[in-house]
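User: I'm curious whether this sequence folds into something compact or stays loose and floppy. Could you predict its structure so I can see for myself?
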Amino acid sequence: QVQLVESGGGYVQAGGSLRLSCAASGSFFSLPRMAWYLQEPGKERELVASVTHGGITKYADSVKGRFTISRDNAKNTAILQMDSLKPEDTSVYYCYANANVPGFGTLQDYWGQGTQVTVSS
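Assistant: Here's the prediction. I'll summarize afterward.
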């Protein structure tokens, strides 16, 4: 169906930048929404940023002005540019997409495997 492959996580000092990339592949008609979530141990996943196929974006208050989400519809990719990183941004980040998939009448949800982002003080 749909596979999401993430890349770009890593270790950076506070104030630095990282760029996360998510590439979607498989059998689907469209990806109406792509997003990045984070998950801390013992907690539910939280939305970081999302972008629709038409380019409408949404951000968590904690990252507004620092993170930018974008997507390339031709390449089925979503990018999260993370600037002015803080130690509290440390987490595992997951790519998410919903998709119109052959054989299903409703949108299906898909997740990537997660990528670790660590920001040192």
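Summary: The radius of gyration is 14 Å. The longest strand covers residues 30-39.
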